[in-house]
Amino acid sequence: NIIVVSDKKEEGKNVLFDKVKSQVDGEKFVVYNLSSQALEKSSSWMTGCRAIIMQKEVENALLQESIEKFKKSGGLVICATDKERLVEQLALFSSKETEEWQDSLASISSQGFLYSDPDTVNLLNCDRILARKKNNVLTQGKVDLILAGDGSCDTVEKANESKEFFHLEDFSDKANFNVEKYLARLETKTLGRNIISLPSVSSSMNVVSGLPLVDGLVIVPDRQTAGEGRGGNRWISPEGCAMCTLQLHLTLGRGIGRTPSLLQHVVGLAVIKALGDDLDIRLKWPNDIYYKKEAKLGGVVVNSSMFSSNLIINIGCGLNLSNQKPTLSVNQLRREAGLSEVSREQYLAATLNYLEDFLRRFDDGRAQEVIQEYHKVWLHTNQQVEI
Questions:
Q1: Strand bridging mode 111-116 / 194-198
Q2: Which tops the pLDDT comparison, 380 or 106?
Q3: Is residue 41 a contact partner of residue 71, using CB atoms and an 8 Å limit?
Q4: How do strand 31-34 and strand 2-5 relate by DSSP bridges?
Q5: N or C: less crowded end of the chain, CB within 10 Å?
């Protein structure tokens, strides 16, 4: 995102905003116009923001503090009164070939972390995946994944032909996601046994676009810059939002593969069960996660495709877990109720534990048990509706 802070209009037009929007590369950036008052009210604008362009120097002390914090995090702040710098920066924002800008993008979005359970079919030992790799690069439609190698310039240049690339290394202290804490709570045989953590990505669903990867793979981004919800709605992901994408390989006619349309409801049920009974969190049809009937906390989106005899299901799930106001979050509600907070690792592991158990019940012919569990948390029980 690029944010233009300007209230000045000439003949009903915001000249600075229109100039910026017309010059930047629309495939890489979304330009927003916000007032200085809007920036003062919340710091959520920093999430996913690359640059902020000011009409004039900041005079408000509170806003100045936020601007300094944004600069320290690597954000660019440009004042329109410095016309030479503004023109120079707009040229960078509009160029697809500028070496300096490509290097800047790489430092933000090329790092990622991978854990593959050696006892499962994984990204590092699956013959189908190995056959697709070229120079350690796995192309996934909208994203390239560098799965092994030394990350040399030749390898990165080949990966950089796509819009996004990620060099995946073993989990370390550099990752925001604590994989050891997560694995200590994970009880599954397949789901979540392969996990990729990304500091920033356009959408975690883009990582699983293209040809299938492995059953049970989970993508966990710290933030998304262009996430999508059901119906193509924009999914904003501020800091503290727990997001993931899960890929399932199902057999048609077996287990939940007989009724795959139920999967979005089963995933929502797994989320509710993972959050426990301490708060009144329920499911609103078809796939929204609500606190009572008051506020939406999250949702589920499911995409499916056929590959050979398998049904490939990509599930995106977003939950407001630890977001700050004005977005209501689970941990905010827990604090207000005097309850301990839930970590992202704890929540994700519990969700996958419940989901694998539910899928196993479908395989065993006990689908009705899961449906009964669903009805217990359904928001619409005893609700009068008009048809």
A1: antiparallel
A2: 380
A3: no
A4: parallel
A5: C
